[in-house]
Automatic annotation (TrEMBL):
This is ABC transporter substrate-binding protein. InterPro entries: Bact_solute-bd_prot1, SBP, TAT_signal. It comes from Natronolimnobius baerhuensis. Residues 15-25 have a biased composition (Low complexity). Residues 1-32 are annotated as: Disordered. PROSITE patterns: TAT. Keywords: Cell membrane, Lipoprotein, Membrane, Palmitate, Signal. It holds the Pfam family SBP_bac_1. The lineage of its organism: Archaea, Methanobacteriati, Methanobacteriota, Stenosarchaea group, Halobacteria.
């Protein structure tokens, strides 16, 4: 799968199973490329019989209003916030007037927990939409299978892309999936609780964040810091951000081969750092090991925790529902980590055009690309970005010039929107940022590994040995990749050691100066 705030954001990101709509990432439900390929292979593209196509005609397309010439269908997963959905549908309808061709456009809203099955079935039945929202990992997967079109030429019409979106869909020298928007993980601070504990400003570094959380836990009846901790999409996304801020990655690519870094000394450090919330500093709430991002959000919104690392849906909902917690909340970029960066996990979505051999409506490829271009023009995006604030963020610099970034026409505080826009330029996405390209197996891996939260959830909830947990997770990933490529990634039988971690992590490992010492069960 892929990681869109895959909701909460887990964030929209976009691909792994989520526990609630407030975690609507384009990282949402389990997706199996192997399962699709086995089925499609057995049928064959040419062997998808007319009978099967007839049985599946309209699957996932109940609202499709085909009228004949010019019919055009697209799917979006933006069905969690009614105002956002309506704005996107109204804006998409404008394509009928924008295009020089006759277009009868239908928008179908499908939830992330249904779309993977519906993509597979509609591909088999050769009645896909002309364009669909997805994550670029899905687009790369389907592109490698010959199901979706590359959009390289359209992508290269622009040269102002943010760093991570610029290679999010890169595979086999083509761009697959046109970046639509990104979402980022956020840092929330309840200033009332921080001030009660003696802190009058929002923490700007890891050291300040952890020390403030310890003070809140000691001085108040509430908890210092929370994030998801269960085996969950949002948990893996927060962990990955911490790994990048510590100088590490989950994957790399050298020459023509992939390598797995999930069991590096830096990865071990980030797992121990996160586990320290419970095991060393006692700043997380009781029962934290079983909490997902939705549980963490509820605690924060009820005023029971001072700081939260989570997706952006909570911010929007706190304001739209007029909650008191919004009045005392500061939203800021992720505090600076050991490498001096504020990097956060990037979720989000792209738009991808299916090949005409698979679509329900036969339109020129150029028309599908024209629709993608239309939906991502700055002038067009002003039609729905305000309703999607503060979750939808630009993928390139020109889009910073639209509302609500230049003129805030929402109820969201200016400072929250500014903080999220600042964060948008400093993001990373597992499997993509290190290698700076994508691969067909990455979406499947993300779903199978619950966004790589398997090891940390075992450490926190099942007392798994941290070294063994990260090695087992990494070796499982190596096995999966070896089954998808024409070379073997050898298993690792050596345990990572903190003494081999980057020098910038030494203060955390040893507890020097004002830096809290991490939990180290091997001391």
């Amino acid at each position: 799968m892929s990681g869109t705030n895959m909701p909460n954001e887990s964030e929209t990101d976009d691909s792994v199973a989520q526990s609630s709509p407030s975690q609507s990432d384009a990282d949402a439900e389990d997706y199996s490329r192997r399962g699709f390929m086995e089925t499609a292979g057995a049928m064959g593209a040419a062997g998808a019989t007319a009978g099967l196509a007839g049985c599946l005609d309209g699957f996932g397309s109940d609202d499709t209003e085909g009228t004949g010439e010019g019919d055009f269908l697209w799917w979006t997963m933006r069905g969690y916030i009614p105002e956002e959905t309506a704005a996107i549908e109204d804006t998409a309808d404008g394509f009928e007037d924008y295009s020089d061709e006759e277009v009868n456009l239908t928008t179908n809203v499908i939830t992330w927990d249904q779309v993977f099955e519906q993509w597979t079935s509609s591909i088999q039945g050769q009645n896909t939409p002309n364009v669909s929202e997805m994550a670029n990992e899905h687009a790369v997967d389907y592109g490698a299978s010959g199901v979706v079109q590359p959009n390289t030429e359209l992508y290269e019409d622009h040269d102002d892309w943010y760093d991570t979106p610029s290679y999010w869909g890169l595979y086999d020298d083509e761009k697959w999936g046109f970046p639509w928007f990104i979402e980022v993980r956020n840092f929330y601070a309840n200033m009332d609780l921080l001030e009660e504990a003696g802190h009058d400003s929002i923490p700007e570094t890891w050291e300040e964040m952890i020390n403030s959380a310890i003070d809140v836990t000691d001085e108040t009846d509430e908890n210092g810091l929370v994030s998801g901790a269960a085996q969950d999409t949002g948990t893996g996304q927060i962990l990955y951000g911490a790994t990048v801020q510590s100088g590490g990655e989950f994957f790399d690519h050298d020459g023509d081969e992939w390598s797995v870094e999930l069991d590096s000394p830096t990865s071990l450090f980030s797992h121990l750092w996160m586990a320290s919330f419970q095991e060393e500093w006692d700043i997380a709430p009781g029962g934290w090991a079983g909490m997902d991002g939705t549980d963490a959000e509820q605690l924060y919104r009820e005023g029971n925790v001072a700081m939260m690392l989570n997706g952006g849906d909570a911010a929007n909902e706190m304001v739209s529902q007029g909650e008191d917690i919004a009045e005392v909340t500061e939203l800021a970029p992720i505090p600076e980590g050991p490498m001096g960066t504020n990097t956060a996990f990037m979720g989000g979505s792209c738009l991808s055009a299916f090949e005409s051999d698979y679509t329900q409506y036969d339109v020129d490829d150029e028309l599908s690309m024209e629709f993608i271009q239309y939906m991502t023009l700055p002038d067009t995006m002003e039609g729905y970005f305000p309703e999607a604030a503060p979750n939808f963020l630009p993928v390139r610099e020109a889009q910073e010039e639209i509302q609500p970034f230049t003129e805030n026409n929402t109820e969201i505080p200016d400072e929250w929107i500014d903080a999220r826009l600042d964060q948008a330029e400093d993001t990373a996405r597992y499997g993509i940022t290190g290698p700076q390209l994508s691969a067909p197996f990455l979406g499947d891996l993300e779903g199978e590994m619950d966004a790589y939260s398997v090891a940390i959830s075992g450490i926190l909830g099942a007392d798994s040995d941290p070294q063994e947990a990260v090695v087992d997770q990494a070796n499982h990933v190596r096995d999966t990749i070896s089954g998808e490529v024409d070379y073997d990634l050898p298993q690792n039988d050596e345990m990572p050691e903190l003494e081999d971690a980057p020098d910038e992590l030494t203060d955390w490992i040893e507890g020097n100066g004002d830096t809290p010492q991490i939990w180290n069960p091997y001391d």
